[in-house]
Design brief:
The complex is a heterodimer of chains A (about 160) and B (about 425).
Chain A (H helix, E strand, L loop, with lengths): L2 E5 L4 H9 L3 E3 L1 H10 L13 H5 L10 H16 L2 E6 L11 H13 L4 E5 L4 H31 L1
Parallel strand pairs in A: 1-2, 1-3, 3-4
Chain B lengths: L2 H22 L4 E8 L7 H10 L2 E4 L7 H9 L6 H15 L6 E7 L3 H17 L4 E6 L5 H16 L1 H4 L7 E7 L3 E8 L2 E9 L3 H16 L8 E5 L3 H8 L3 E2 L2 H12 L6 E7 L4 E7 L2 E7 L8 H11 L3 H10 L12 H13 L4 H19 L10 E4 L7 H10 L3 E2 L7 H10 L6
Parallel strand pairs in B: 1-2, 1-3, 3-4, 5-8, 8-9, 10-13, 13-14
Antiparallel strand pairs in B: 5-6, 6-7, 10-11, 11-12
Helix pairs in contact in B: 2-6, 3-4, 4-5, 10-16, 11-13, 11-14, 12-14, 13-14, 14-15
Pfam family, one (chain A): DUF2112
InterPro entries (chain A): Methan_mark_5 (IPR012356)
Organism (chain A): Methanosalsum natronophilum
């Protein structure tokens, strides 16, 4: 099982696909759930405070808008801990959306900078493209499984 | 906590509590919040807190998700950020009448170019298509409820008190007190005439208000007991309003709009009011004396009256003499490298050292303040003539001169422009004078 960062980071469909193939999707919803469920001074659901944009300074400089840095405080650690990634380019809004184009650009850039297995694929616009889309993702996820099994066998052999 | 701190904190706490109580007795106002990034910047709670303080309910117009696909073309502005598309779609639903609101607040991240374009255009779109008060604000993670409060108060006042704001004549014997950041002003008015005025530096809020009022009453030759109604405005309005049991406690946007068109005798039709204060500036598009679009500066002291005060100190002249100097000077002879109050003054000092005259330096200082207001505030409102300049800084002749040159319009400085807040308060308070 690998931890897989997905883009859009809020995509329920993509997150479900990843889980079906036995991997753990790293998604924004989980981060927000944790924020909401963690008891703090700022009660749920408004517990994103001015501290988040400050934490986001790890990923974007101070001249980057606070909304981008606040989002990066949630997404950045997911990218850091990812073992593989799937980026869906030009997705429909309903497929998943982080709301901010600058955050999208930075998120995709930081995923690409990681030296991890990465599938980058366009969002399908027809039924045939849709089938091919799912097939490519499935293949990528299966290969990740195979690769991890192979590396486990190699380790055992050594 | 020491007793001294206690004695300072308690009145403020009480005043805030009473302000909230006062607002809770008024009609709740629905404000449509059109925002991008406020949740993730951590300021959503601050916006909600400010809204609660003025008894406003934030409304988020619902729109079908497929509308987001076409909103760029529909609105004419194609942007990449989905939240900005949502913002435009929500604005459209307000104009279509799908949702009924009393006012609109548009807010996006500071330093986002895409959001700045959308924010300005959506504000203009709402202003041109529906008669609703609208303001816009760009936030950072440091934006607090207190910063938003004056703006929220102005929004809700315009929505709630149109009858009070339509008052064009002062009647009875009323007092207005403007507790500003630098000076406290008081006026006594009787039957549409100023009969007494007081103007003192703000030291302790209540003491200064008492002193200004004492001077005004002395000049008017009336006693406190004869006063029929009191209005308070300015930074210290809650404390002062509470202390004097004022009938009207109102932020400066509404009061100054009303005061400006009253003093300039331009109560009907559009006007633009610019108030250069000691600590912040206001630029307000007014229609029939009621504020429509407005902006409040306040991040940089280099664009405020404080900069002019420091310049006059450096030149060794009284602030009242700075204007006359500026009119005689040539700003081109002084190189200003910064708008900052510290580095800007340094530029002026360097110019003096290189042989520039005090007149040139005074002219450059006035020009610098006006240039910043032009760049940072006037771009965000509709500038319609007459342009009415008010506040203490309007008496520095170099300021209206520079503003007129910049905008190529005649700048109107009404009589008693420095008493704008106090006059506006006395005028509004007269709505509470019993027949």
């Amino acid at each position: 099982m690998a931890q897989i960062i997905i883009y859009p980071t809020t995509s329920l469909i993509l997150s479900d696909l990843v889980r079906r193939f036995g991997h753990e999707p790293l998604v924004m919803m989980e981060q927000i759930r944790e924020k909401i469920n963690t008891v703090g001074i700022d009660s749920p659901p408004l517990n994103i405070t001015g501290q988040e944009p400050k934490k986001g300074l790890k990923y974007a400089a101070v001249e980057v808008p606070a909304g981008v840095r606040g989002r990066m405080a949630l997404v950045g650690p997911l990218i850091d801990s990812a073992e593989a990634g799937i980026i869906v380019d030009e997705p429909d809004i309903a497929f998943g959306c982080m709301g901010c184009a600058r955050t999208n650009e930075l998120t995709k850039y930081l995923i690409r900078q990681r030296d991890i297995p990465l599938l980058e694929i366009y969002y399908p616009r027809t039924e045939d493209e849709g089938k091919e889309f799912v097939k490519q993702i499935a293949t990528f996820l299966k290969e990740l499984n195979n690769n991890s099994k192979n590396s486990e066998s190699e380790e055992e052999a050594n | 906590m020491s007793d001294e701190q206690n004695s300072t904190d308690l009145p403020i706490y009480d005043a805030q509590k009473r302000r909230v109580d006062r607002a809770s007795k008024e009609k709740s106002v629905k404000i449509a919040l059109l925002s991008c990034g406020s949740e993730y910047a951590g300021v959503q709670a601050e916006i909600e807190s400010a809204a609660k303080d003025v008894n406003a309910q934030l409304v988020y117009p619902e729109i079908p998700v497929d509308e987001l696909e076409n909103i760029g073309r529909d609105f004419g502005l194609e942007v990449a950020s989905p939240d900005l598309k949502l913002l435009m779609a929500r604005a459209k639903s307000i104009i279509k009448g799908d949702v009924k609101v009393d006012a609109v607040l548009i807010t996006t991240c500071f330093r986002c170019a895409e959001a700045a374009i959308v924010r300005n255009e959506v504000r203009r779109y709402i202003h041109n298509n529906i008669n609703l008060p609208v303001i816009s604000y760009s936030f950072t993670e440091r934006t607090k409820a207190a910063t938003l409060l004056t703006r929220m108060e102005a929004l809700t006042t315009v929505a709630r008190r149109k009858t009070l704001l339509s008052r064009e004549k002062q009647k009875g014997l009323t007092v207005g007190i403007d507790s500003g950041s630098t000076t406290t002003k008081a006026v006594v008015m009787r039957n549409d005439e100023i009969i007494g005025e007081g103007w003192v530096p703000t030291v302790k809020v209540i003491d200064s208000a008492e002193n200004a009022l004492r001077d005004a009453l002395e000049e008017a030759k009336v006693s406190k007991e004869d006063i029929q109604a009191i209005g308070a405005t300015g930074y210290g309005r809650f404390l002062v309003g509470d202390h004097f049991n004022a009938q009207v406690v109102q932020e400066e946007i509404t009061v100054n709009s009303k005061g400006a068109v009253y003093l300039a005798d331009r109560q009907k039709g559009p006007a633009t009011v610019i108030d250069i204060g000691g600590m912040d500036n206001k630029a307000i598009s007014v229609d029939d004396g009621i504020p429509g679009i407005f902006t409040m500066g306040g991040i940089c002291a280099g664009a405020s009256g404080r900069f002019l005060e420091m310049t006059s100190k450096r030149l060794g002249v009284d602030i009242t003499e700075l204007g006359a100097l500026a009119v005689k000077g040539m700003k081109e002879n002084v190189e200003m490298n910064s708008y900052c109050i510290v580095f800007g003054i340094q530029s002026l000092v360097n110019s003096l050292a290189k042989g520039a005259s005090p007149e040139d330096v005074a002219a450059a200082a006035c020009y610098s303040v006006v240039e910043q207001i032009f760049e940072q505030q006037l771009q965000e409102i509709e500038v319609n003539e007459p342009l009415i300049l008010v506040g203490g800084s309007s008496l520095i002749e170099g300021i209206p001169l520079a503003l007129g040159e910049f905008l190529n319009v005649d700048v109107l400085v009404p009589p008693n422009a420095h008493l704008i807040g106090a006059v506006g308060s006395a005028l509004l308070a007269s709505g509470y004078v019993e027949e």
